[in-house]
Design brief:
The complex is a heterodimer. By secondary structure, chain A is mainly alpha-helical. Chain A has a domain of 35 residues: Histone, subunit A, CATH 1.10.20. Helices cover 32% and strands 4% of the residues of chain A. Chain A contains three helices and two strands. In chain A, strands 1-2 form a two-stranded antiparallel sheet. Chain A is flat, with a radius of gyration of 23 Å. The relative contact order of chain A is 0.08. Chain B has one domain: Amidase signature (AS) enzymes (Alpha-Beta Complex), CATH 3.90.1300. Chain B is 37% helix and 12% strand. Chain B has an eleven-stranded mixed β-sheet with strand order 1-3-2-4-6-5-10-11-9-7-8. In chain B, helix 10 links the parallel strand 7 and strand 8. In chain B, helix 2 packs antiparallel against helix 3, helix 11 packs across helix 13 and helix 11 packs across helix 14. The chains are: A mainly alpha, B alpha/beta. At the A-B interface, helix 1 and helix 2 of A face helix 11, helix 12, helix 13, helix 14 and helix 15 of B.
Chain lengths: 99, 534
């Protein structure tokens, strides 16, 4: 298992959409590597023939009828909107060249 | 049996309050007013609460009074049919969404978020006539073992205001220990109900994964999170579990297995309760007496085990050989699931939002300023563990070790009916003591997180004091065996009913009553950077 380089930390921060200062990145590099060291013990265990457990409840494919029902009203849904226009959330531009 | 004093209703157990309400000795309104007054007067030095909603609580209390009065008019059958928590003051952890009230999950990123629906458990509590007083302080997104990682400041332990109440449900534990509420709701992903219950000297239970619906509970780790009750008495804990447990169509992981009547098997008579221990096989796992366990904690737990044995239980030495791998397993799976669950906090639809640049710059700034340090650590760990090239080495590997950890318990339960162990390796530690070393903090949960990994029910009950601070005994059961676990907890209460330490109130209460006592704070050297204003 690898240890994290500074470049790795910056890459993961970008993947996680976390804006971090240089100070925070430095502190995190040390802390994360210290935590990753704790994971090394798992390599002591031979798990080649062990199936993974994703969840312990052993329920599968819990579905419901695809019928429409009451949901949030537009006002309820938009209650916390940082920016609102009518019944829409206002979002930053995500498509280049659009206006 | 205790001599019950009616002079101060906040000192009653919930089941005693229920008796008083049914007998017409006091009203829910009087009960709720007394608790609200105490909470307002004594929370400054404790910071157990994020907010108290007096107006709503009083309205619900009045409705409960009408319901109780109607039952008293109708006769004994109607009174007996009243739900156990009708009219009783309850606290909810700040990640339980309720309509028209804020929930922030202890995070700046949900600053000002107002719920537009009720969580399933809030609906159930409402239908049962329970009176929610407000919401309690917690580690941000339930990530923590001390209730120090909170955007709005830490909580303290009522037994020593310079120490932590445990976490992440520290506010829920402290509020009950300080008599602000009769019972409270917490959540437990790696120990976050059981550990603060142990550190605050009360009972707390994490049910089997799937026993209680997670609909409307702000998510941390979806295969580990469970909602559960805290209280000063096992019967009260059982009553709240009874109130909230059961299948909910809106949570696909909520189990259709019927909920038994837990209270029916918890006798009021101590001898009857203790009789459950005769012939019971209780496993004592040697790996749970971890290096770094305080001698006083170990002594209290071993004394508790001897008491169980004297009462007729057979103590069986068991081994859960993969226990030491639990920390790494949990600290891969939980952060991985958290990184996915917390991806939704982007400042687009609600909460803290920074809009100074393009969409990417806004995400980076919103999440960079909205999340605290512990959350960032875990989101980073989880993102890394799930990323291309590392997914098999970390996440899948951890899931395989999860199978082994669960297998340890399954094997042990072929030889014993339940397992007893310490809840926490130490008593409450000082505020700030573990903030510089995340791994030291994670070790607080060494005895609790394997139970989440295996999805089993676990209860912590107080078993004495070490140097004046509470110690908890943990009881772990087979899946869906909440009934047995509660009976063992009740039996332990019964056989220790006359213990000196049961007569003590938390030592910090007089200071809490002093208006000059300041709010809890972290020592200056470990003070996190203040959250920037939105």
């Amino acid at each position: 298992m690898a240890t994290l380089s500074r470049a790795d930390v910056e890459h993961v921060a970008l993947l996680a959409r976390l804006g971090l200062s240089e100070d925070q990145l430095t502190r995190l590099e040390g802390q994360l590597n210290h935590i990753l060291d704790q994971y090394l013990v798992l390599s002591e265990l031979d798990t080649a023939s062990i199936p993974p457990t994703a969840q312990t409840i052993e329920l599968e494919n819990i579905l419901r009828e695809d019928t429409a029902g009451p949901s949030l009203s537009p006002d309820e849904a938009l209650l916390g909107a940082p920016e609102r226009q009518g019944d829409y959330f206002v979002v930053p531009v995500v498509v280049e060249g659009a206006d | 049996m205790r001599a019950v004093t009616r002079r101060d209703p906040t000192r009653l157990f919930a089941h005693e309050m229920a008796g008083g309400l049914r007998a017409g000795e006091f009203s829910s309104r009087e009960l709720v007013d007394a608790h609200l007054a105490l909470a307002h007067a004594t929370d400054r030095g404790l910071h157990a609460w994020r907010f108290l909603d007096d107006e709503r609580a009083r309205a619900v209390a009045d409705a409960a009074d009408a319901r109780i009065a109607e039952a008293r008019r109708a006769g004994p059958d109607a009174i007996a049919a009243l739900p156990p928590l009708a009219g009783i003051p309850i606290a909810l952890k700040d990640l339980v969404v309720t309509r028209g009230q804020t929930s922030t999950a202890g995070s700046r990123i949900l600053d000002g978020f107002v719920g537009t629906f009720d969580a399933h458990i809030a609906e159930r509590i409402g239908a049962a006539g329970g009176v929610v007083l407000g919401k309690t302080n917690m580690d941000e997104f339930a990530m923590g073992s001390s209730t120090e990682h909170c955007a709005w400041g830490p909580a303290a332990n009522p037994w020593d205001l310079a120490r932590v109440p445990g976490g992440s449900s520290g506010g829920s534990a402290a509020a009950v220990a300080a008599y602000h509420a009769a019972v409270s709701i917490g959540t437990d992903t790696g120990g976050s109900i059981r550990q603060p219950a142990a550190l605050c000297g009360i009972a707390g239970m994490k049910p089997t994964y799937g026993r209680v619906s997670r609909y409307g509970i702000i998510a941390f780790a979806s295969s580990l999170d469970q909602i559960g009750p805290l209280g000063r008495d096992v019967r009260d804990v059982a009553a709240l579990l009874q109130t909230v447990a059961g299948r909910d169509d809106r949570d696909s992981t909520s189990s259709p297995i019927p909920v038994p009547d837990y209270l029916a098997d918890l006798p009021a008579d101590d001898d009857a309760a203790a009789g459950f221990l005769r012939g019971l096989r209780l496993g004592l796992p040697r790996e749970y007496f971890v290096p770094g366990m305080e001698p006083g904690v170990e002594a209290r737990v071993r004394e508790a085990v001897r008491a169980l044995e004297s009462a007729g239980a057979e103590i069986v030495d068991v081994s859960l050989p993969h226990t030491d791998y639990g920390l790494a397993t949990y600290y891969i799976i939980a952060p991985a699931e958290a990184s996915a669950n917390l991806a939704r906090y982007d400042g687009i639809r609600y909460g803290h939002s920074v809009r100074e640049g393009d969409v990417l710059a806004n995400y980076l700034a919103t999440r960079g300023t909205g999340f605290g340090d512990e959350v960032k650590r875990r989101v980073m760990l989880g993102t890394y563990a799930l990323s291309a090239g590392y997914y098999d080495a970390y996440y899948v590997k951890a899931q395989k070790v999860r199978t082994l950890i669960k297998g340890d318990f399954d094997a042990a339960f072929e030889r014993v009916d339940a397992i007893v162990a310490p809840t926490s390796p130490t008593v409450a530690f000082p505020l700030g003591a573990r903030l510089d070393d995340p791994v030291a903090m994670y070790l607080s949960d060494a005895c609790t997180l394997p139970v989440n990994v295996a999805g089993l029910p676990g209860l912590s009950v107080p078993c004495g004091l070490s140097e004046g601070l509470p110690v908890g005994l943990q009881v772990i059961g087979r899946a869906w065996d909440e009934g047995h676990v509660l009976r063992i907890g009740r039996a332990f209460e019964a056989i220790t009913a006359d213990a000196d330490w049961r007569r003590l109130e938390p030592a910090g209460l007089p200071a809490l009553a002093d208006p000059a006592t300041p709010a809890p704070r972290l020592p200056a050297m470990t003070m996190p950077a203040p959250a920037r204003p939105a």
